[in-house]
Design goal:
This protein is about 40% helix and about 10% strand. By secondary structure, the chain is α/β, with parallel strands linked by helices. The protein has a domain of about 220 residues: Amidase signature (AS) enzymes, CATH 3.90.1300.10. Strands 1-3-2-4-6-5-10-11-9-7-8 form an 11-stranded mixed sheet, sandwiched between helices. Helix 10 packs across helix 13. The longest helix is centred in the last third of the chain and has 24 residues. Bound molecules: glutamine. The site of glutamine has 14 residues, from loops. The site of glutamine (GLN) has 14 residues, from loops.
């Protein structure tokens, strides 16, 4: 049997006949990365190391050792996740020269299952953005159409999977940064429940929203990676101690029919691309015809969710990013003898990019004494209402479906001068982060502009099994056909 890289289980099956299979897989991805360097998906590739790890795994397998669940699986890591002994930049100048001193828990667990980390991927600086254009290391190109963005903030990790530069990848999702780039790139992107995967070793943006997520080409791969990295961790008290249930074999085969809801206001929103709306409405009918109950429900809170997200997440960011002061690590101005306050100012003015500064300012403002109640407290109240409403919805429904993004991938530069327009495009993704529920973007359709788009599904907290089973079912409807059109 020839080496197959279509899915992890196919790959593992093909390894029985391939004594050097892991080495071959890593070599394959390394040459794909080299051929696609112009996409700027990787900030660093661990070439020598990955080949060495592959060789060691091949040897171990040949000696008859049992294979880890991610044996030889080639993973790309968003550069906000710590990998001990390797540079970590958050795509920012301010972490210049910084090296991780420990493994993130997710990385520790990937390695324990014998995954091979092939490199660290480009992203928006500190995961703030929707296009990957906020990186200090240049934009990432959408491999489908290079004049367009891959989405963000985990653009590099999305393109790594999209362009076949790694088998799967990890990103982080604070307001949509896994689901939206997955949508723009035509792959699967899962944001698990808040508290499912440890945030230990993940650079904090907004701690009550941040969650590590998984990109892949098929549901079984994404679910397997989740199974390997999830679960309680002494280093992160917000991770649930409940052990998630995963039926042994073929866990992704669900039963259905499902009780599905969608928000009327979301489908009728003026910002939604009319073609996406039409396709999704048609798809609702198709699901109904196939025996599922799909109902439109009222959701009058929709217009409050983007403001609430940008108030709360920037407030948390302004506090989390206070640690980057140039004293202990990272970038520092090269003028010696500056007074301390001046030193901080210079470090932060020179080290942070424009969007990060904007968010620190915004966050500091909404937390300031005179405005705290008008903004921060109000936004917390909106968050509470959203959680209560969500709990009620899941009394009657298994799944909520929404678009992932109001449009297909933007053209490069299109929204860079209009931060509000950029923020508003997060309308469908931030809901899951505000409420902590899991969400996934499943690539199903092709727009007449040639770009992929998908559908977003969400379940109640810790119901990833249902979410992934439903997604696996959705994938049977996939009609994305990889057109050549690119404007
Ligand atoms: N686009 C959102 C933002 O700019 C999402 C960021 C994220 O999920 N990390 O905040």
């Amino acid at each position: 049997m020839e080496l197959t890289l279509a899915s992890i289980s196919d790959y593992h099956a093909s390894l029985y006949d391939q004594p050097n299979g892991c080495w071959m897989a890593v070599s394959h991805y390394l040459s794909r990365i080299r051929e696609n360097e112009h996409l700027n998906a990787f900030l660093e590739v661990f070439e020598v190391e990955a080949l060495e790890q592959a060789r060691a795994l091949d040897e171990k397998r040949r000696a008859g050792a049992e294979m880890g669940r991610l044996h030889g699986v080639v993973v790309a890591l968003k550069d906000v996740i710590s990998y001990k002994g390797h540079a970590l930049s958050a795509a920012s100048k301010i972490l210049d020269g910084f090296t991780s001193v420990y493994h993130a828990t997710a990385v520790e667990r990937l390695l324990a299952e014998e995954a091979i980390i092939i490199g660290r991927t480009n992203c928006d600086e500190f995961a703030m953005g929707s296009t990957n254009e906020n990186s200090a290391f240049g934009r990432v190109l959408n491999a489908r159409c290079p004049s367009r963005v891959p989405g963000g903030s985990s653009g590099g990790s999305a393109v790594a999977v999209q362009a076949g530069l790694s088998m799967v990848s990890l990103g982080s999702d604070t307001g949509g940064s896994v689901r939206q780039p997955a949508d723009f790139c035509g792959i699967i992107g899962l944001k698990p429940t808040y508290g499912r995967i440890s945030r230990y070793g993940l650079i904090a943006y907004a701690s009550s929203f941040d969650q590590i997520g998984v990109f892949g080409r098929n549901v079984p791969d994404v679910g397997l990676v989740l199974q390997c990295v999830e679960g309680a961790d002494d280093y992160d008290s917000t991770v649930s101690r409940t052990r998630p249930e995963w039926p042994a074999a073929k866990w992704y085969e669900g039963k259905g029919p499902y009780r599905i809801a969608y928000f009327k206001e979301a489908f009728d929103h003026p910002g939604l691309d009319p073609e996406i709306k039409e396709v999704l409405e048609g798809f609702v009918k198709r699901l109904q015809k196939d025996g599922h109950s799909v109902e439109a429900i009222d959701f009058d809170l929709l217009d409050y969710i983007v403001p609430a997200y940008y108030i709360l997440s920037t407030a948390e960011a302004s506090s989390n990013l206070a640690r980057f002061d140039g004293v202990k690590y990272g970038y520092r101005p090269d003028t010696p003898g500056l007074p301390l306050t001046e030193f901080y100012k210079r470090t932060r003015s020179e080290g942070f990019g424009k969007e990060v500064k904007r968010r620190i300012l915004l966050g500091t403002f909404v937390l300031s004494a005179g405005y705290y109640d008008a903004y921060f407290t109000k936004a917390q109240q909106v968050r509470k209402l959203l959680v209560e409403r969500t709990d009620l919805i899941f009394k009657d429904f298994d799944i909520i479906i929404l678009p992932t993004s109001p449009s297909t991938a933007f053209h490069a530069g299109e929204k860079m001068d209009d931060p509000i327009a950029m923020y508003l495009a997060d309308i469908y993704t931030v809901y899951a982060n505000l409420t902590g529920i899991p969400g996934i973007s499943v690539p199903l359709f092709t727009h007449s502009n040639g770009m992929p788009f998908g559908i977003q599904a969400m379940t109640n907290r810790f119901k990833e099994l249902t979410l992934l089973q439903f997604s696996h079912l959705l994938m049977q409807y996939k009609s994305y056909e990889n057109p050549t059109l690119c404007d």
